[in-house]
Design brief:
Elements (H helix, E strand, L loop, with lengths): L3 E7 L15 E7 L3 H11 L4 H20 L4 H4 L2 H12 L6
Antiparallel strand pairs: 1-2
Helix pairs in contact: 1-2
């Protein structure tokens, strides 16, 4: 399957007490069947989450989702997969009208 390619960098800026952390960044490359940038733009545009939250959610969701899709028969994920599919369908319906 053709995939978009991404380089992800996570920098640990401060510990739980707010102290600076001197640690090497975590960097890795990963593929995804979706355009993560477009997914994040969609989630930001929904308006039901703050922009920074929507960004973190979108990136995390797509990284987790691709791992889940590629390993859906793995015992660790098999039971969760149907709930994930249902969640994604719900998410794609758009923000709740209130």
């Amino acid at each position: 399957m053709k995939q978009h390619r991404y380089r992800v960098t996570v920098e640990h800026l401060a510990d739980a007490q707010g102290n600076p952390v001197d640690a090497s960044p975590l960097r890795f490359e990963v593929g995804n069947h979706d355009d993560i940038m477009a997914v994040v733009a969609y989630l930001r545009g929904r308006g039901d989450l703050p922009e920074e939250t929507a960004t973190a959610f979108g990136v995390g969701l797509k990284l987790f989702g691709e791992t889940l899709l590629e390993n859906r028969d793995h015992p660790l994920f098999a039971e969760f997969f149907p709930q994930f599919v249902a969640f994604m369908k719900h998410l794609k319906k758009g923000p709740a009208q209130g």
